[in-house]
Amino acid sequence: MLGARAWLGRGLVLCRAGLGLAASRRYGHRTWPCRSAQGSSSRDKDRSASVNSSGPMPAGGKGSRPSCPPSAPQRSPNRLINEKSPYLLQHAYNPVDWYPWGQEAFDKARKENKPIFLSVGYSTCHWCHMMEEESFQNEEIGRLLSEDFVSVKVDREERPDVDKVYMTFVQATSSGGGWPMNVWLTPSLQPFVGGTYFPPEDGLTRVGFRTVLLRIREQWKQNKNTLLENSQRVTTTLLARSEISTGDRQLPPSAATMNSRCFQQLDEGYDEEYGGFAEAPKFPTPVILNFLFSYWLSHRLTQDGSRAQQMALHTLKMMANGGIRDHVGQGFHRYSTDRQWHVPHFEKMLYDQAQLAVVYSQAFQISGEEFYSDVAKGILQYVSRSLTHRSGGFYCAEDADSPPERGMHPREGAFYVWTVKEVQQLLPEAVPGATEPLTSGQLLMKHYGLTEAGNISPTQDPKGELQGQNVLTVRYSLELTAARFGLDAEAVRTLLNAGLEKLFQARKHRPKPHLDNKMVAAWNGLMVSGYAVTGAVLGLDKLVSCATNGAKFLKRHMFDVASGRLMRTCYTGSGGTVEHSNPPCWGFLEDYAFVVRGLLDLYEASQESAWLEWALRLQDTQDRLFWDSEGGGYFCSEAELGAGLPLRLKDDQDGAEPSANSVSAHNLLRLHGFTGHKDWMDKCVCLLTAFSERMRRVPVALPEMVRTLSAHQQTLKQIVICGDRQAKDTKALVQCVHSMYIPNKVLILADGDPSSFMSRQLPFLSTLRRLEDRATAYVCENQACSLPITEPCELRKLLHQ
């Protein structure tokens, strides 16, 4: 297709972007690129690691990661030193003439007639670190990049539009993608070669980065016109492939058909033993679990419905018992490198914590098992302790790598793994009442699968950095561990929790992983949802307060009142102040979609209408900036912000995060329920229609959108509570609603004031009366409301129907 393969030389399959990914596979999981798909304080005491019966089990900040080796002489900084992004600052002392993404770099490329080398990553990406240390710190490679190319470094978390455009090229011309993503562009920003991680030098089966640079330099000089023609051809093909439009379709596809096909595709790929939907690497995929719960609700009297529930609950249980969960400090790592959820890729991302808190809360609603609610609370206590700014915002991520000891080179997982000797020294106390001599350390090691030799396979540790180390993973239920030593299960729970607390306190003395203290509006929106939904489900006001603080942070620091626009990022400055780049980085579609979702969830959790009002204003701005009035759906970026990029995309895949169009479709549906504004329902239908072909072709790629399609073609419930927000009887009815899994609803508080915001939006609210001056609930569908209900048990019965 590309016609560019031959010129790179025999054996170099760069133009299909396969070299970085395919060559990585031969070294095991730790050479996969990072996949597509902070100081001690009193808050550290709130570790909240808890051990729960899970049923039968199968047998930093800036400068925290040095850019140069300690022994190297200090170099002069390049222009990235003036940036705010932690990722760009990690490259500020490379011997490379780096440019940030911008007109200065593009003008230089055109003026000097040089190709652009674009390198995209993020600050907590393990293989981004590796390539920086191996290649970008190399003096010879630095000279090549500076003399023969215009080298541009991009933080994908700052510029998701740039990342998506060129990742589309890499994925279309190879079998996958990941980070670091390295793409060579013409001066007009059209891609012609792409890949992921490259080693610095040639190996037996792969070409090194230096050789790649030399060959591209040679071909640019000798065959530039051919490269430009091929690049234009590729761009034209990608434009055609990426077009999403309503075309001549008037309505979206059948929800029943899409639902069934999506479920069948998931069922076929389901791992019966360990849960999840792949062999390895294995990702949490909250969007899939959300779909399965929704599918269960609408099919709960069928075999497929029961199957969907079992698949989701089993996956969540296996994840929570596996090493992908940090049993000592809580929270979840990025993904598992194996089928068993045992050895993770150790970085911790904010967006994973946010979505998993919601899905574990939903699992509790559905099952009633406190195991799931405890996991959700643990996630949020980790976020409060380690990823929360003092003003209420939320940081992006913690790194996978950290030094085993101060002054040593960072290693992946060093902060999280344990040797048997360490555990024995920390937990030497004898356990009373056991049927054999037993220490607290031995009990913990048995339950969590620690061994003298370490429980990490050499195939998962090709560099030998984790020899003798262990990742905690629950190997037995509490009951089995207790039975093994003749102990009471509750006594074992207490002993294990005490042991985990001692490990947590000891771990605080280790060098901590780098903290990316950048704050992204989209992920802060997801985190507002995480706190709001979990707080509402569990009836914990302190969690709803955290959601409120997050929303206040967004409005105070990431919202421009004059233009009504969101900013994409802000940064932690000296002394914990909040700083912005100049000019500011304006928000993308996902920032608006995820923040609007967070505000809608916060309104339902707090019943404070100010958050709903702001959500409506943000949705208006989103419609103005991103809506495609010709083809339907939303573009990922503003037209002006993406000027010069070869593609303007509409994200069409629910992955590690839901696509912004999927979330927007559901937001529009909910906003129509809150306001009755027909325009938003029309936009929802138009959006779903525009994505019809994508859903028909591979519904499993858009489970969140299929879920919204189902909600649209069913009937949205408007659950109205008439009462005073602070009154006990009002709270009882509200908590009854929150305790139930009802995804296709809006929850509205009517306080009886005809001039209130909600009454102005939905005039029919003024016709609903309290019964005998008590808080009263109405369930309304299709512009008809139920009889008044004052007892939570009666409301529960009605909602169960």
UniProtKB/TrEMBL annotation:
Signal peptide: 1-22
Keywords from the named record: Developmental protein, Differentiation, Secreted, Signal, Spermatogenesis
A single GO cellular-component term on record: extracellular region
Membrane-spanning parts: none
Keyword Transmembrane helix assigned: no
Chain intervals for the UniProt region annotation (Disordered): 33-79
UniProt keyword Cell wall biogenesis/degradation, yes or no: no
Database matches in CDD domains: SSP411
Entries under InterPro entries matching the protein: 6-hairpin_glycosidase_sf, 6hp_glycosidase-like_sf, Ssp411, Ssp411-like_TRX, Thioredoxin-like_sf
A GO biological process held by the record: carbohydrate metabolic process
Subcellular location(s) per record: Secreted
Domain of life: Eukaryota
A Pfam short name: Thioredox_DsbH
Location of the Spermatogenesis-associated protein 20-like TRX domain: 77-238
Function: May play a role in fertility regulation.
Stated name of the protein: Spermatogenesis-associated protein 20
Taxonomic source organism: Propithecus coquereli (Coquerel's sifaka)
